[in-house]
Design brief:
Layout lengths: L1 E7 L2 E8 L2 E4 L6 H6 L2 H4 L8 E2 L4 E3 L8 E5 L3 H11 L10 E5 L4 E2 L4 E3 L8 E2 L2 E7 L15 E8 L2 E2 H6 L4 H4 L5 E9 L10 E6 L2 E7 L7 H8 L10 E3 L21 E6 L3 E8 L8
Parallel strand pairs: 6-17, 8-14, 9-19
Antiparallel strand pairs: 1-2, 1-5, 1-14, 2-3, 3-4, 6-7, 10-13, 11-12, 11-17, 12-14, 15-16, 15-18, 18-19
The chain binds magnesium ion.
């Protein structure tokens, strides 16, 4: 099942994507509201008539109440390219490197990402498989970890490399507005036999920059969920970005960063394409 958040006729809705249409639920308008319904009763939720996908504006399928959890350097090829670019020896941690992105960084699929050239001159891309947690849980064993995963979606961990470097902690360089597009929809876990066997790619203006498979993760999804939930409660609708493969801009020779008008596409097999265009104008001040 593919679940999408969308705006139609001035109203935000949540529904099931079916072919080239989407059927909105009558009584739930967000993923969190859907997850609050017991799994056995979700099938009986009333749905309205299908609306053509072309007539709706897709929104980020999940807006977590808290920061988006992320794993840094979780593909060996990417860890190696970063070490090479930074002129430092590869020093892999024994546990996942967790950091977060502010919820205000979340952007919609298809949205123009308004990034300020005054804030950073090094905006970079990172295609990632995002995991959406389906239930409240803690201390999840690796063997049970996939059972708390509700579904999967695409995420672009857009990063201001200069800020990431200067601030030491990655948070600031990872949390600017419009630097966390998510979507285009959530594919429920039952549709993905093995989340560690998905092709993942990122294109900029049609040119492939990243091309890998989720099988190359250093810490797989089971290990990530087990480690993150150890002594820390995860809640329905929490999002975990599972790291990016090699091919990021900062590690290329010479380094490449996002230009005004650049169109990024994150594509993950069995999920779809998350496309966003960059506008490097100074955004209006958010109030
Ligand atoms: Mg990342």
């Amino acid at each position: 099942m593919r679940l999408a958040s969308f705006e139609y006729d001035g109203t935000v809705r949540f529904g099931i994507v079916d072919g080239d249409g989407v059927r909105p639920f009558a009584s739930v308008a967000t993923l969190q509201a859907y997850l609050a319904v017991s799994p056995s009763e979700r099938g009986a939720l009333t749905k309205g008539d299908a609306v053509p996908l072309r007539d709706v504006t897709l929104l980020a399928p999940v807006r977590p109440a808290k920061n988006v959890f992320c794993v840094g350097r979780n593909y060996m090829d990417h860890a190696e390219e970063v070490s090479r670019a930074n002129g430092k020896p590869l020093n892999l941690p024994k546990v996942p490197t967790f950091f977060t992105k502010a919820p205000t960084a979340i952007a919609n699929p298809g949205a123009t990402l308004r990034l300020s050239p005054d804030v950073s001159s090094e905006y970079d891309w990172e295609a990632e498989l995002a995991v959406v947690i389906g239930e409240r849980c803690r201390d999840v064993a690796e063997a049970d970890a996939l059972s708390v995963v509700f579904g999967y979606t695409c995420l672009n961990d857009v990063t201001a490399r200069d800020l990431q470097r200067e601030h030491q902690q990655w948070f600031k360089g990872k949390s600017l507005d419009d630097t966390c597009p998510i979507g285009p929809w959530i594919v429920t876990a039952d549709e993905i036999d093995d989340p560690q066997k998905l092709a993942i790619a990122l294109r900029v203006d049609g040119e492939t920059k990243q091309k890998s498979t989720t099988g190359k993760m250093i810490f797989d999804i089971r290990a990530i969920v087990a480690s993150l939930s150890r002594g820390m409660t995860l809640e329905p609708g929490d999002v975990i970005a599972t790291g990016t493969p090699d091919g990021v801009g900062m590690a290329r020779t010479p380094p490449e960063f996002l230009r005004d008008g650049a169109r990024m596409e994150v594509e993950i097999a069995k999920i779809g394409v998350l496309a966003n265009t960059v506008a490097l104008g100074t955004p209006a001040i958010a109030r």
